[in-house]
């Protein structure tokens, strides 16, 4: 601790000197917008662990909450030298999280009207506010903490991502040790924040924001330590009795401020409370190629949720999450059912319309699939079949966010290589909703005949074949006839036997 205090003192002295010369370029921006500019953004979406495996916490670089209280995620196009995100808001402050090295998150608090340029040193984001002067540590507090406390390594609290081989019997001790480290680090971080704030190197708004971030994080971990870590053994009545002992919980329950839910730390805290104490245990649905959680069960549970702990706005956070997953993974029939239940209970037409627009639900239905390649050249699925007549066509339905789909890609590449001199065409059709993310993923996976489906939600072909859970594979014969609507995945012998059987008929 003494060594750390010396490091902090040296830091404060050095920055106090440099702060005298600190200047920021002044540019006029639209006072209604927060403008974020990303220059040469590196890939911060994945982290390579010591065993060389890739760990990813999210598939988007940035997270923020809009004025309709909808959690938005966005990534700059890494194929461009510069990309811009404009956030329209009437709030005075907007916070964002920036994914860092795959599993870490950096938090930033900006003012409405700010123009912020993100440059990078390696993977480290180095934001600059162009339109106003900021305190010396308003923009790099997170990286400073990682340097002082962790020697630029990951902070406490991320141990789960780095040690996911912990056995169930060791789990309680693992979380206990992690909490103790988080708690001791929080005291040091508070000392650093107090020192920075006292020396006028951290603004009041940023100082209070990071206090809130640590406060809610520590509280939730403390509750888990006192009650236990097993979601299967939850007892809401016992949990509430224990929670009522905490001052912060009583403040959370009795002094509702829906304005707080626009801040990501509070939003995450509320969702964590719901997940730990009230979320239904979701059954897994097994398909021929994957497992998917049944979010319809969760939505049913939320519709029946009766508790005074959460406000209506907080309930809508949980409901929108479940609804998003239902629309993403299940049929139009299920989607409409739960969309209508959401609308009936909450009367929130903005969030209802957001889901409709996000997934193009309710637009004109087409029998064919409308496809776009990476150059945005259009082609229909029917035309693709005609173009490759005389060959077997193996269709892989996937998405950039689908882990089982991405895992299967390495086996697809092996299969393609095996049949490279045979009359077999591999077609990759993505149900992504974000073109740029799909494009960069498609290039990264080295997919040749790869397309994004423009009308996934409005194609009768998708509905007729019930292509809701992915990965999903189809096989068409040389005449373009569908001969297997649930074809085997690329890994095993079954697909090879099927290929060989149909290839004989081509001779």
Description:
- With 507 residues, the chain is of the alpha+beta class.
- It has three domains: 2-234, no CATH class; 235-362, no CATH class; 370-504, Glutaredoxin, CATH 3.40.30.
- 43% of the residues lie in helices and 18% in strands.
- The chain contains 17 helices and 19 strands.
- The strands form five sheets. Strands 14-13-17-16-15-18-19 form a seven-stranded mixed beta sheet. A four-stranded mixed beta sheet has the order 6-1-9-10, with no helix packed on it. A four-stranded antiparallel beta sheet has the order 5-4-7-8.
- Helix 5 (204-227) packs parallel to helix 8 (264-277), helix 9 packs antiparallel against helix 10 (312-329) and helix 10 (312-329) packs antiparallel against helix 11.
- The radius of gyration is 25 Å and the shape is globular.
- It starts with a helix and ends with a helix.
- The model is unreliable at 16-30 (pLDDT under 50).
Briefly summarize what is shown.
The chain is α+β, with helices and mostly antiparallel strands. The protein has 17 helices and 19 strands.
């Amino acid at each position: 601790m003494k060594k750390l205090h010396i490091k902090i003192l040296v830091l404060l002295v050095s920055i106090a000197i440099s702060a005298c010369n600190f200047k920021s370029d002044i540019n006029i921006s639209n006072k209604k917008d927060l403008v974020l500019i990303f220059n040469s953004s590196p890939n911060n979406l994945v982290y390579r662990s010591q065993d060389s495996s890739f760990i990813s916490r999210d598939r988007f670089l940035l997270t923020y909450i809009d004025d309709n209280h909808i959690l938005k995620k966005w990534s700059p196009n890494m194929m461009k030298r510069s990309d811009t995100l404009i956030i329209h808001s009437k709030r005075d402050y907007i916070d964002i999280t920036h994914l860092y090295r795959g599993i870490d998150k950096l938090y930033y608090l900006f003012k409405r009207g700010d123009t912020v340029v993100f440059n990078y040193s390696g993977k480290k984001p180095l934001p600059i506010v162009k339109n106003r002067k900021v305190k010396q540590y308003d923009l790099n507090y997170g990286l400073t903490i990682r340097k002082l406390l962790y020697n630029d390594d990951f902070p406490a609290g991320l141990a789960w991502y780095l040690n996911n081989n912990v056995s169930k019997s060791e789990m309680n001790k693992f979380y206990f040790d992690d909490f103790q480290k988080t708690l001791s680090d929080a005291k040091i971080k508070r000392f650093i924040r107090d020192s920075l704030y006292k020396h006028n190197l951290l603004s009041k708004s940023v100082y209070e924001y990071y206090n809130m971030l640590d406060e809610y994080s520590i509280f939730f971990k403390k509750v888990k330590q006192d009650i236990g870590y097993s979601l299967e053994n939850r007892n809401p009545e016992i949990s509430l009795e224990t929670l009522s002992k905490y001052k912060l919980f009583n403040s959370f329950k009795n002094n509702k401020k829906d304005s707080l839910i626009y801040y990501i730390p509070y939003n995450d805290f509320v969702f964590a409370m719901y997940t730990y104490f009230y979320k239904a245990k979701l059954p897994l649905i097994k398909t021929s190629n994957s497992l998917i959680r049944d979010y319809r069960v969760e939505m049913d549970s939320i519709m029946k949720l009766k508790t005074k702990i959460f406000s209506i706005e907080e309930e809508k956070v949980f409901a929108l999450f479940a609804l998003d997953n239902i629309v993403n993974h299940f049929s139009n029939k299920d989607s409409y059912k739960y969309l209508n239940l959401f609308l009936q209970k909450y009367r929130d037409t903005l969030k209802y319309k957001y889901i409709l627009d996000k997934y193009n639900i309710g637009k004109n239905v087409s029998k064919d699939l409308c496809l776009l390649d990476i150059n945005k050249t259009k082609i229909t699925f029917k035309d693709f079949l005609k173009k490759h007549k005389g060959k077997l066509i193996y269709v892989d339905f996937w998405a950039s966010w689908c882990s089982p789909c991405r895992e299967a890609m390495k086996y697809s590449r092996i299969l393609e290589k095996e049949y490279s001199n045979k009359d077999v065409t591999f077609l990759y059709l993505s149900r992504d909703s974000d073109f740029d993310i799909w494009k960069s993923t498609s290039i990264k996976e080295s997919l040749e005949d790869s397309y994004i489906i423009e009308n996934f939600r409005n194609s009768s072909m998708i509905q007729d074949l019930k292509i809701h859970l992915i990965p999903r594979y189809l096989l068409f014969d040389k005449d373009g006839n569908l001969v297997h609507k649930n074809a085997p995945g690329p890994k095993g012998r079954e697909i090879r036997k099927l290929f060989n059987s149909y290839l004989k008929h081509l001779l």
